[in-house]
Amino acid sequence: MNDRISQLLKRAPSSELVVVEGWVRTKRESKTVCFLEVNDGSCLKGLQVVIDLQSFDQSELLAKVTTGAAVSCTGELVASPGGNQAVELQARSIVLHGEAPVDTYPLQKKRHTLEYLREIAHLRPRTNMIGAVARVRNEVSYAVHSFFHDRQFSYVHTPIISTSDAEGAGEMFQVTTFDLDNIPRTEEGAVDYAKDFFGRKASLTVSGQLEGETYAMALKNIYTFGPTFRAENSNTKRHLSEFWMIEPEMAFCTLEGDMQVAEDFLKYIFAHVLDNCSEDMAFFSQWVEKGVADTLRSVVEKPFVHMTYTDAVAELEKNNKSFDYPVHWGSDLQTEHERYLTEVVCKGPVIVTDYPKEIKAFYMKLNDDGKTVRAMDVLVPRLGEIIGGSERESRLDVLTERMVSLNLDPADYWWYLDLRRFGSVPHAGFGLGFDRAIQYITGMQNIRDVIPYPRAAKQADF
Ligand code: 4AD
Ligand code: MG
Q1: 3-state class of 259 per DSSP?
Q2: What is the pTM (predicted TM-score) of this model?
Q3: Three-state secondary structure call for residue 356
């Protein structure tokens, strides 16, 4: 395989012939010389290809080499007289693999809006911005695995098709092979799921946590990293119907250990991106969110603030007149409240703990006050919640009671309750929204621009 442009740009000039393969970003021509900027996605920068028109004998072909065309250029790397790069390619020959006609190629050299780019999501990775996002996404994925691998966590593949609602929130997409115009019914007139593909009602998973817990009860420390699906009809800049989530689960661990892992984990992936994507981060800092790289660096260096929900509400109440939704003890925190806490009160990431049980999922450990649960959310500026987690209820009787009071049928969760019957132990975990993490790292405003093909209410193009 030929070297990538990121590698070629670090090489010294040499008479050895090299081949650069990529897509033309720009072409500039004078009477005597033609400059192509070729990009292959390995880095933000392209390689400048210089063609001496007086000695070059492929002028017919060169006429068809325009923005967007796929080319292989062979030549020598020479010192570049221009200030933008150390080396450039002095081309001897060019192979034109695929043309990109000027009158129809949608990505001509000019700035396009992110809204327009969403309409051509199949071509947008060829832009500087979406290309940079794709590289950061790739590096963060790698960092996720290396963080957990280094700490002896096992990567567990939890199912995507699920028959239990892990969050108990009823936001599931159903999976069925029924002909929707002719749904089998029981004698009583109910949908006869026994006749459906799985012989029962099935859905896309909202979280791998419950299955993750079963493996933590055997392997001690595990994590999942996969797609999750939510049919919440919230058309916001931080919600997707299909998003990726990382869910570690740790046996012999309480909320304190859980929060420590969450903080270490976020700092690890931020530091990894700063160390390994410095060029892309400089781009985001300049063009997307001023100074975002410096912000990340300062987050890595400072301990996270901790605050109970009760204290958080006391802070928020002082500012109630400026919120669309005033807060009182017991209310769920909206994005405006989360942002106020992290941006104004704490000026950085904050971990809010011990929420009222009414606004949290059934599996969270009940505190001795009987009112709050051992929950923790990590909030960050601009986005609000990025991580949600908790210590799990490991007492069979308390958990069963909780489910019943929430109208969940314990029989549906028999295997989950078995974990509390056999070798139960304090355990805890959390979920990091991967796409929100990428949004935070890059400063991108809209979550739909950090995932290749966003799915949201009324949006499933491509
Ligand atoms: O707070 P959530 O719902 O927690 C869980 O799913 C737990 N089972 C996690 C666990 O304890 N193992 O979701 C976790 C994170 C949120 O903090 C948010 O970052 C992200 O997932 N998230 C979404 N991201 C994009 N679009 C959505 N619709 C999201 N819903 C949650
Ligand atoms: Mg949450």
Answers
A1: helix
A2: 0.97
A3: strand
